[in-house]
């Protein structure tokens, strides 16, 4: 049993004023792993004060100083690869496969922030004026549990590149993962107060970050519902917000696609991170006359998506993070059945032999229409809905008929055709014939998938305020 009873403020591990504890439960066995002591409003205010003081000097650092800080953090994280992968599989139930990808993603965040600093010009000329891109101030970073340290690295590295200081509120369920990254950040020896981390509940620590006038910007990743609460509160002090929210990503397979490749890819897109991914391709759009072929390909391929112990390198689908999340996914599977969709694979209940953990059977529904709740709402579990279409135009229409717009997928053997279809999808990222991540390209959502973008120049500029110096001649 581990007890995490420190938060991090102004360069030091400190005991929170908050006295409440939260139990950390293994998603794989439902046994207690440990406890975390939660910070309260006062702790959050102390963290914000430290970040505010640090901003006075950190905002004036040069690009080369910031590059050095980013390199320092990266080199410490590089020494602890196994620890990062192990703690993510143990505490979150992320598969070894996903945790390894997530670890690489953490390191790449620092590379791309360094790249940006090497190429970005903080002083520009616009019209006849000088425009200075200045660090925005103290940034509140609020993140979910599904890739906790990945989000800390991508947001913190951008904040550092911009010259901002930060207060980070991870999910209370990620406390052991947070402890590990904290140890690394501490070892990297940044100036005191540049990053502060407060474990705690959303309604307490997150709410104070959203309300406090000394926070200039919030970078939030999480559900659309909580994103709306944060945005409403933030507007009172006119905080800038970057909101990375939910998704219900469409995956269009065009009739000329190589289905033997596109279907395994589609299952991979739907079940990535055990389905607990905002970018998961959970609506699969296929030509009506290919349904039988798709059904048999899915039956053939789905056994490759091994469900079980996340530590096993062959496992593709691990447990849901919590019992609550397990129940939510079960409720959606029941909803799909009630709505008249047909289960092609998976279904209700736990897979045999995995009764102790929060395991869900990877589930594929056919006979789904785009008005059903299973086609409209984010389930956040390994559940795929297959919807048929008659024409390319109809496929595009269904793909765009959603309140979300985070990511989409298109497969075709004709790259020009795929490009034309991809260019008509209202989503922040469209993946053509594959799944990739470009850390220099923007990431974020259309519609209720969010506000703003992360990564690349657009992501960096979300941490900067332009100041135009007008000197009339
Ligand atoms: P969540 O929205 O419940 O919580 C996210 C964070 O917000 C947590 O740290 C939580 O404590 C905090 N929070 C909760 N209430 C708050 C409040 N009133 N004020 C301030 N902060 C508050 O999300 P979750 O359940 O942890 O994660 C799953 C959700 O995250 C899914 O909807 C998923 O789509 C989304 N997500 C989005 C992206 C993206 O990049 N767009 C990536 C991953 C996950």
TrEMBL record:
EC number, as in UniProt: 1.2.1.3
Catalytic activity of the protein: an aldehyde + NAD(+) + H2O = a carboxylate + NADH + 2 H(+)
Enzyme class: oxidoreductase
Protein name: aldehyde dehydrogenase (NAD(+))
Hydrolase is among the record's keywords: no
Annotated keywords: Oxidoreductase
Domain Aldehyde dehydrogenase per the UniProt entry, residue ranges: 14-467
Active site per the UniProt annotation: 244
Species assigned in the record: Flavobacterium tagetis
Family membership: Belongs to the aldehyde dehydrogenase family.
Keyword Oxidoreductase: yes
Pfam family name, one: Aldedh
